[in-house]
Recover the amino acids of this structure.
């Protein structure tokens, strides 16, 4: 931000139009989702892809990191919320039929809608 120059683009590699973006709590990782249901996490400084999490075609609405940065939460258009391990990309948990908006408690123990 100091130079005002683009460091890298979240859209490189054909990710398409970005719907939502979130930074990890430590500020080292940025996560984004597009309108086609793909999520990517990349290194903030280098742009290197860390994870690519594909979702079903029902569309993703939002993405957020848990406060400790180890879990990524994603919500879809049909009301499904899934949590993923941020380091491995493996599915941890799935919740169905939430309302909008969504809030995750500071300790990530409660998802409210």
């Amino acid at each position: 931000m100091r130079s005002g120059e683009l460091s890298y683009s979240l859209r490189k590699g054909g990710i398409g139009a970005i719907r939502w973006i979130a930074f990890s709590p430590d500020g080292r990782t940025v996560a984004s989702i597009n309108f086609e249901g793909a999520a990517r996490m990349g290194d903030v400084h280098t742009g290197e892809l860390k994870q690519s999490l594909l979702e079903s075609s029902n569309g993703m609405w939002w993405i957020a990191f848990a406060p400790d940065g180890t879990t990524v939460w994603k919500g879809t258009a049909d009301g499904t919320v899934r949590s993923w391990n941020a380091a491995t990309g493996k599915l941890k948990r799935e919740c169905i039929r939430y309302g909008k908006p969504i809030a995750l408690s500071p300790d990530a123990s409660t998802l409210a809608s």
Observations:
- The mean pLDDT is 78.
- The chain has one domain: 18-112.
- The radius of gyration is 14 Å.
